Amino acid sequence: xxxxxxxxxxxxxxxxxxxxxxxxxxxxxxxxxxxxxxxxxxxxxxxxxxxxxxxxxxxxxxxxxxxxxxxxxxxxxxxxxxxxxxxxxxxxxxxxxxxxx
Length: 101
Fold this sequence. Notes:
101 residues, 2 strands, Aminoglycoside_PTrfase
């Protein structure tokens, strides 16, 4: 489990994902922790495709992933507010995506 898999921790080369960084919270655990990237990084269309591709996860896992995304976003804004505009942007994007469905 990565615990905060969002665009700030993803490396791209020529538009292709080539790496993941920031493993400070890496641990074996609930796969929903990694699925929360569906809200941290993607829009509604991307999230639908992501879920179609990951058929091995049940509805309960996706519900927990929403919870992980909500927790990370609320804590980021509560702890940092707008002092880190990059992190605040991710948190605000995530909250908007969670509210969108």
